[in-house]
Write a structure and sequence with these properties.
This protein has one domain. The protein has 8 helices and no strands. Helix 5 packs antiparallel against helix 6, helix 6 runs parallel beside helix 8 and helix 7 runs antiparallel to helix 8. The longest helix has 30 residues. Pfam families: HlyIII (PF03006).
Length: 193
Amino acid sequence: MSRGSESRVEDVDKMKGSPDSYVPSKRRFMNTPAKRNEAYIPTEIEHVANIVTHGLWVLPSVLGLFFLVYQSSSSPEYISAIIYGLALIGLFSVSTVFHSVFYSGRFRLLKEILHRCDRAVIYIFIAASYTPWLMLKDLEPEAWSSELCWFVWVMAICGIAYQNLFHERYKTLETCFYLIMGIIPAAAVMHMV
């Protein structure tokens, strides 16, 4: 068990009898919620699950990138395929490495850097997921597809900057960044269907 997980489990043991305590069987799968402005510390099982589930998708992501590039017949399709494919590979690769280092309980500085990278690649992936829709589909003139493509990437950059400046603080603001990035371009995509 990693050092962070052990201390969190000890905290749960101390809380026995309090209204917020967990049933011992649940403790094995999920630790107590993080305190305000602190990171959640996953259990050993959560770490292993994250490593396995994220690691399993690295190779299919690489194959997906090659497939998308192979199927591209125009410059915008090729660019969209590269952007989306690299973001998908980055998402699963960075997450797998981050959770592996975190699980090891060593390399504290590397863990902190990878944690920030893990969060950054989520912003990149959200933007990369909308890029093909906004680049390749013809939208109504009032749908602002080109502006929305820029907007989602500017939001990704702002989210990455925020994450680096205020890492693990102001979690509500971080959630708002994710929601705004996800919902606003979705409004334009809804006009496509």
